[in-house]
Specification:
Elements (H helix, E strand, L loop, with lengths): L11 H29 L3 H9 L4 H25 L7 H7 L5 H4 L2 H11 L3 H30 L5
């Protein structure tokens, strides 16, 4: 196309964008399945009744669709909180190389390099345990806040 080639995996300024875009694309399929399944649980007669009452698309979305899928939104949010620190470690490891270490290193890749690369098993285990405890705490706090403010939660 007459443009200069871009070395996606060798350019620090481009690597994060590639990682975020590919992670978003990777999650799109699963999220679509989950939310489409949630949409099927909403009774179509509610939409018909809203149309008869004169509700437009936005009113139907606000008063029928969002309350209908709210439990799934809360569930997905709480489950995602547990993966915040994970940050797509497997995906990063696939695209990992020494050139992009400074922009691609996350806790999971650090644990991988320390544990398997430097054979410092005790330190990498401690860091991994720290990550797990923080993730567990985030799930507990997220569920408690959801229970308090939305009267919904995982348990």
């Amino acid at each position: 196309m007459g443009m200069e080639p871009i070395a996606f995996f060798l350019d620090n300024s481009v690597f994060r964008s590639v990682l975020i875009t590919s992670a978003g694309w990777k999650e799109t399929g699963w999220s679509t399945i989950v939310y489409l399944a949630a949409f099927t649980m909403i009774d179509p007669m509610l939409y018909e009744a809203a149309k008869i009452d004169g509700a437009g698309r936005w009113k139907q979305l606000w008063h029928i669709t969002l309350p209908g899928i709210a439990p799934i939104i809360v569930l997905m949010f709480i489950l995602r909180l547990g993966n915040v620190l994970e940050a797509g470690t497997e995906q990063i490891l696939v695209m990992y190389n020494p050139v992009v270490y400074q922009v691609s290193d996350v806790i999971g890749t650090f644990v991988y390099r320390q544990g398997l690369g430097n054979q410092d098993y005790s330190f990498s285990t401690a860091v991994g345990l720290f990550e797990a405890v923080i993730s567990f705490t985030l799930v507990i706090v997220g569920n408690a806040m959801s229970r308090k403010y939305l009267q919904r939660g995982i348990w």
